[in-house]
Amino acid sequence: MPELPEVEVVRAGLAPAVTGSTITGVSVFDERALTRHGAGAADFVARLEGRTIASASRRGKFLWLPLATDDSALIAHLGMSGQLLLRAPDAVSERHERIRIHVDHPVHGELAVVFADQRTFGSLAVDRLVRDGATIVPTQVLHIARDPIDPFFDDLVFRAAVGKKKSAIKRVLLDQTVVSGIGNIYADEALWAARIHPETPADGLSTQAVRRILAEVRSVLAKALAEGGTSFDAQYVNVNGQAGYFAHSLNAYGQQGKPCPRCGTPIVRESFMNRGSHFCPKCQRRR
User: What is the pTM of this model?
Assistant: First the structure.
């Protein structure tokens, strides 16, 4: 599933191409791509055509394009395999293409924003914008916490929330109501870097340990962003269809059986919440 770095790479790629552009046409080929837009395809099209895109924003794994002179936005969640691609207006249909949005940019001219999704768990919608503290977000984003690279993220609030959780620290890192955008890959990588076992009870961690985990989360996310995100197959690509290469820098996730880069002990994988946790049994001893 695309996580924070992958969604941020997509947002950054979309921003210069769509900001200030006018939506000239919308084609919905598969209404399963509108599960978050309950009013249906006709309403989705009517609320977008003729509108101007003001910017491109993101929180956690959600990204949205605020519409000028209105309190609404085009919001996207990529699900497991969703892609937002920039194409020429007359480009042939993408495999698994669900929605195509034609825009006219004052500098770049005509472009097509294509939403393709192999597994159909992703969705687009037009949603109302509301104030959330110092920022404006779609209503569908209000339920999730800020992410660790958000300038308004409060480290003290995060520390307090972790201290109230009796569950495993990895489960807390994946809890979108505590901190958003950290998926399975980056939770494993950050805990490996912090030398913390993923099953360590959150409320037993010292303030120093929580600060170390948060610092490593930010470090891992920054490295993944610099390398274009993590791609294991063709399902995650940037807006130009190019894969990220952070998979080559992974120390724990997906490395089971390989020697730990720090101590040489084989990395192990254990079942966790219908997925897997990857860690070094020596460097990340459960205490």
Answer: 0.91
